[in-house]
Structure formats: structure tokens, C-alpha cells
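quick one before i forget lol
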Amino acid sequence: MDFSDTATRFDRYIALTSSSLKDIARLKAAKMEKYGLSVVHTDCLWHLYTAGSGGMTQRELSEREHVDRAQISRVLRELCREGYVARKEGAGTYKHPYVLTAAGSAVAGEINGIVLEINHFVSDEIPREDLILFYKTLETIARNLQRAVEHYT
């Protein structure tokens, strides 16, 4: 790839990230189809699983998922109705932490196993040093894009 051509480089970045995000969504959808869970449902369960017994609030989940609180509120209601999540008592509506139930822990444990399996499949042949550099670079790009959004909008 010719790195001197900014337009080509940016186009390649967009194509690769878009394609990767679509592939990740397809993998999540395929693996969670038996539970009738969407990608956002799956992600919320996984985040609650990694948060541990303290759970997470709507605000924390909304920030982690980069979706609005209304959508997270709807998803959490659905997960509660399905028996995967319960709400702990807290100070206010958005301060109530949500935690996994036993059924939710079982599904989230499966999700975590799938994440680890796919992660190994995708990155096992990439040297650790390359992965460290890749994520460091990707984080810089993400920060710079956020700065561009703030500057140009």
C-alpha cells in the first residue's frame, strides 16, 4: 500500500474497519441466535459478566456501548424480562446497578468463551509485539477521530 496517498490510506482504513465490524456482528448474531439476543443484548451481558458482582449502571453500559440511554434502558428491560439480568437497588434510576442472574451468568459465560475462542482464532498467529503496537495505534486513531468530531462539528 502506498502510504503517501492519504485518500487511499483513509479509504482502506474505512473499508477494513467497516468490514471487520460487520464480521464481528455476524459472529455475535450467529452464536447468540439460539437465545434470541441481538448484538446489543449480547454486548450488555458480556459487559455485566466482566464487571463482576458489582454490576454496572445504565449510564456505564451506555458509555461502554456508545449507544443512547433509551436503547440501553430498553435492552435492560428485555434482559430483565428474560431472566438474564436483575436490578439492584440504588440511589436513582440511572444509578441502579444491573447484575447477571444465574441464567444470565450461564449465557454470559458462553459469550465470554466465544469471545476468547474467536480472539484466539483471529490473533494467535500475530506476534504479541505487533498486537501491542496495533492497539496502541488504533487507540491513537480513535482519539484523533474523536478530536476531529469535536473540532469539525
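fyi The helical segments are 6-32, 39-51, 58-65, 69-81, 102-123, 128-152.
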